[in-house]
Amino acid sequence: MALDMTRAQGGTAVHDIGTEIHGLITELFPICRSITGNGVRETLSIIGRHIPLEIHEVPTGTEVFDWTVPKEWNIRDAYIKNSRGEKVVDYRKSNLHVVNYSTPVRIKMPLEDLKKHVFSLPEYPDRIPYRTSYYNESWGFCLAHNDLLRLRDGEYEVCIDSKLEPGHLTYGEYLIKGESDAEVLISTHICHPSLANDNLSGVALATFLARELGGRRSRYSYRFLFVPGTIGSITWLCRNQGGVDKIKHGLVLVDVGDAGKFTYKKSRRGEAEVDRAVIHVLKHSTSDYDARQFDPYGHDERQYCSPGFNLPVGCFSRTPHGEFPEYHTSADDLTFVRPEYLSESFAMCLSILSVLDDNRRYVNLNPMCEPQLGKRGLYRMIGGPKDGGVQEVALLWTLNFSDGAHSLLDISERSGIKFDVVKKAADALLQHELLGALPE
Ligand code: ZN
Known about the structure:
Blueprint: H1 6-9, H2 11-28, H3 38-47, E1 54-59, E2 63-64, E3 67-68, E4 72-81, E5 87-90, E6 105-110, H4 111-114, E7 118-119, E8 141-142, H5 145-150, E9 155-165, E10 168-176, E11 183-189, H6 196-214, E12 221-227, H7 231-239, E13 247-253, E14 262-265, H8 273-283, E15 289-292, H9 301-304, E16 313-317, H10 339-358, E17 361-364, H11 378-381, H12 392-401, E18 403-407, H13 408-415, H14 419-431, E19 435-437
Parallel strand pairs: 7-8, 11-12, 11-13, 13-16, 14-15
Antiparallel strand pairs: 1-10, 2-3, 4-5, 4-9, 6-9, 10-12, 14-16, 17-18, 17-19
The structure holds zinc ion.
Zinc ion binds at residues 192, 198, 321, 328.
């Protein structure tokens, strides 16, 4: 891939991209998103200022495998007022206050009854929890536990000015055409309201990766999906069953803006090329990481890796869902995600994609004994300037194992030499006509 890594690895440039990603998270943060509705449309329209996003609208009631596209949810306002008419809970202060997907309600009730519809977190009494009522029509409020304790007995006026009615499920898609129709899939969920790490971090990172790749030549085509969690990926898979064979590698991006170490959850296949590429890049980085086997719990990789598809799609994150105490609470805010972690995640993803794009197989065109490197000037290249030099040992590994069966990543794993170094050696050998590329 003609991916320019200087931008991702250079000092100030990295800071700039992290700041840009954080800026987009900040812009998207106030919007009340759900699995359907105008919050998703508004989000996609903002993303559309950065990349040419194609928007799809799928009608409520559409059958998608064992599921049905649900009603569309929209909300204008919600509050709880005490008997003096004072708002004690106000959706306009935090959209987390309303259980996401709540049916409309306008009712007066005593505190005792209201409490049956209220959720709080006694273990984190200052945080508002995030709750949803998808696929089970009901209504409710989420409060900081301390605020719940402050409510006195009496009658309360409850209002949720929402609409749950036939409409559409909305998702965004952007296909960057490469030299080949074979695709790399990048998928991220766009259904959470004001929560930064889960998953505006993934949404914003995917947006800037797409912008970066959109301006470059690449071997693969890159398909970016911005879908509501679960139902969105199921809907996409159902509508695109015929084309999934083109997906050769894929990543779900989530929770990429916190300070935690990188965590990679492998595809169901376990040893797919994407699994090996991610682990190679993490292993050769200076960052701490954790690599895990696939499990059928998590994000949209559950759908991509369902046995009927079994696509080579892993999940790339920093601290995974449920493993940071801010998860699904109001503490997952704009201060919890930081530009420096976002830029590190950006650089890591670009490195992974570049390994995938450059991982080809070659044939040694001079396989009878070693070719004489000196007479071709290849020794002069060795030990040159830091970035231009080619390692002799990498030349020897690449020559020996370029037998048409081993890819550059195979050679890199076997030799322990970083992929970029093997790639550089292969480029030099190609230039000197000692290697030939295999047709795809
Ligand atoms: Zn979540």
